[in-house]
Each structure stands twice: as C-alpha cells, then as structure tokens.
Write a structure and sequence with these properties.
The chain is an alpha+beta fold and 379 residues long. The protein is built from eleven helices and ten strands. A four-stranded mixed beta sheet has the order 1-4-5-8. A four-stranded antiparallel beta sheet has the order 2-3-7-6, with no helix packed on it. The longest helix has 35 residues. The radius of gyration is 21 Å and the shape is globular. The model has no long low-confidence stretch (mean pLDDT 95).
Length: 379
C-alpha cells in the first residue's frame, strides 16, 4: 500500500486543513477557552460544526447513520486537530468510544450514536487506574446485581470525563486484577447515581477527571459486547485510539515545525536571517526527515488497521513510539530555535510542547510501546 493519500483522502485532507485552520485556530479555540478557564476545555459550538462537516461520524458505519470511513480518514482529521492544537473530544468520542460501540447491541447504538453523529453528545473512555497507562491490569469491579451490575472502583485521567454524556468503562466481572479474561465494557450515562468526578486541568489545558464509582447500578443493556468477553473489544478500542493519537501527534510535530521554520525566515541576528545559518539549517532538515518518517509509519498503521491485518497491533505501537520521539524533537527544537522568547506565552510554540507532553502519555508513552514492540516481535 502506498504511504500517501488517494484522491478522496487528499480532498478530505484539504477540507479538514482549511476548516481547522479557520475554525479551530489556536487564538479562536485553545487560547479562548484556556483564558476563560472553561470547565470543558473545548467549545461545543465547534463540536457541532465538526458534526455538520461529517467528522464526528467518520468511523460510524453507514448502517448506523455515519460515513463508514476508515482510520486513515480519521487520522487525516486528527492530524489537522494536532497541527492547530484544536481542543475537541474527537479522539475520545469519535475514535475510541465509537470503536467500542461497534460491538454494542442495536438498542445501545441507537441510544448513543445519533447524538455523536449530530454533535450533540460527547463520550469519554475510563480505562486507566493509576498514573501510567496499564490496561492489562483492571481492578474496578462490576458485580451481578439483579438483572444488571453494581459498579465500584476508580478510574484516573478520564479525558472529558465531566463533560461526557456517556463513559465507556472497563470493569472486571470475574477473575483477578491481572487476568486477561473476565473484563466487561459498560456504557455508563452521565447521570448514573453513585458516579462522581474530580476534575483536573492537564498541562495542555484540556480537562480530565478522577472518576469514582460507588455502587453505580447499571442494567444489563449497558453491557457493550459480551459479559466477561470485553478484552477483545477493549483491545480494538485501544488499537484505534493509539493509531489516532499517533496521527494527532504527527500534526503537533508538523505544527511546531512549521512555526519554527517560519520564525527562522523572519528573525534576524547579526544582520542575517537566522535561517541562513548552516547549523540551524542542518537541525531543521533533520527534524523534517524525522517528522516525515513518523507520518509514514502512522499512515501504515492506519492502513493495516483498516485492512484488518494481524500486524496492525505491532505497527500501532511502532507509530506511537516513533511519533512520540519525533514530536518531542519538534517541540524541543522549536523552543530552542525561537530562543528565550520561545519560553513565553506570547508565542504559540510553547503550547505545542505542552500538548505533546500530554499526548505522549495518553494510551501509553514511548517506553510502554517500545516494550510492546519488543514483546510482539518475540523478544
């Protein structure tokens, strides 16, 4: 498969690029909501506009009212979100939660998907239970209670948790905390009695929560997929999210690089544009090559995922680890080449560093995924 976009994908990329640059720009969205200490961290009006563009239902099947596109297309939108640092629930709602809901019953999909497609609903996923992403260990419990379940435990760093109309929650219905089997996914509505949120603002100004479940009563219809059979659904959801996070990371890297190159073309020192200094040219060229490699491996991961390849899981971790390194390089070089002013809030380059820091940790950092690459490769 070629590591570039076909004509339809190129058209989508052009549309998404123009839309995010105009409507999702840093001054219009990120700085606007950050400076007002918005409790959601994003604008619902923009989310509605994204729905009108068809973005929110990209991965939802046509039978369920969506566009039925693939992860390459979702990655195109996410890259532009990253390039413009556009705060939105797209990754959590339209990629992670939408992927989980594919395994839901017709009634469950009928309840939640129309709101997503129309831009009226926001979803969150509650997986992690500690400071690091370790989905292999799940101790939140869902015990049988009448015809349903009683949910107890805590999830940490639930992105958009307090803003979500529904949370996809991974809980253990049998076995010990470290067992691969015995996990079930639940669609928990925001008004569930016994659920509480402790909201925190992350370094990139996005909002997350530590969410507690104190005997939350759920009926059997809240189960996504099969009881005790949620590990496969969870794995598919995480796989989609990791590829999506890598695509957004590529956008963050590109956005930081573009602003840095523009600065090199404008800033003068010793009577010359600093972009004329060979040392900075070499660093910029090296950065460009690293970002292009990260972009290529991310497209490959998305293509394999769309094709249902067994190698998709390996390539997703390759992409997540590689993008973390490339984006980290892009934001560090950006701040350094801007000089001292790069550390101030006056310039946007520091915002890219903050977003990169949060995104690297989301769904596993580079060390977690480097370990997965080794494990999946037989080491």
């Amino acid at each position: 498969m070629p590591l570039y976009h076909n004509d339809d994908q190129a058209m989508l990329a052009e549309t998404a690029s123009q839309f995010m640059a105009e409507e999702g720009a840093i001054a219009k969205q990120l700085r606007h909501w950050r400076d007002r200490e918005c409790k959601d961290g994003f604008g619902h009006a923009l989310w509605k506009q994204m729905a009108e563009m068809g973005f929110t239902g990209l991965l939802v099947s046509e039978a369920d009212g969506g566009l039925g596109m693939g992860h390459v297309e979702a990655g195109i939108v996410l890259e532009e979100i990253g390039r413009n640092l556009t705060p939105s629930p797209f990754l959590a709602s339209s990629v992670l939660a939408a992927t989980a809901l594919e395994a839901g019953s017709a009634d469950l999909k009928g309840r939640w998907l129309p709101g997503l497609i129309g831009g009226d609903s926001v979803f969150a996923v509650a997986i992690d239970e500690g400071p690091k992403h370790r989905p292999e260990r799940i101790k939140t419990r869902a015990e049988k209670s009448g015809n349903g379940f009683r949910l107890s435990g805590q999830k940490d760093f639930v992105l958009h948790g307090a803003s979500a109309d529904m949370l996809v929650v991974a809980a253990r219905t049998s076995g010990s905390d470290d067992d691969a089997e015995g996990v079930t996914l639940f669609a928990v509505p925001k008004d569930a009695s016994g659920m509480s949120h402790d909201a925190v603002r992350l370094v990139d100004s996005s909002m997350a929560t530590h969410t507690k479940f104190d005997g939350v009563e759920l009926d059997g219809d809240a189960v996504i997929g099969e009881v005790d059979g949620g590990r496969d659904v969870l794995s598919r959801m995480l796989l989609a999210g990791r590829v999506g996070a890598a695509a957004e990371g590529v956008g963050v890297a590109r956005g930081a690089m573009d602003r840095t190159v523009d600065y090199l073309k404008q800033r003068k020192q010793f009577g010359k544009l600093i972009g004329e200094f060979q040392a900075l040219q070499h660093r910029a060229a090296h950065l460009y090559s690293e970002v292009e490699i990260a972009h290529a491996v991310t497209i490959k991961a998305a293509q394999l995922l769309d094709a249902g390849s067994e190698r998709a899981e390996l390539m997703a971790s390759v992409a997540k680890a590689k993008v973390a390194r490339a984006a980290g390089l892009a934001v560090r070089e950006g701040v350094q080449m801007h000089g001292g002013i790069g550390m101030t809030d006056e310039y946007d380059i520091g915002l890219y560093m903050k977003r990169d820091r949060a995104l690297q940790e989301f769904l596993g950092d580079q060390y977690y995924h480097a370990g997965r690459v080794a494990e999946l490769s037989g080491y």
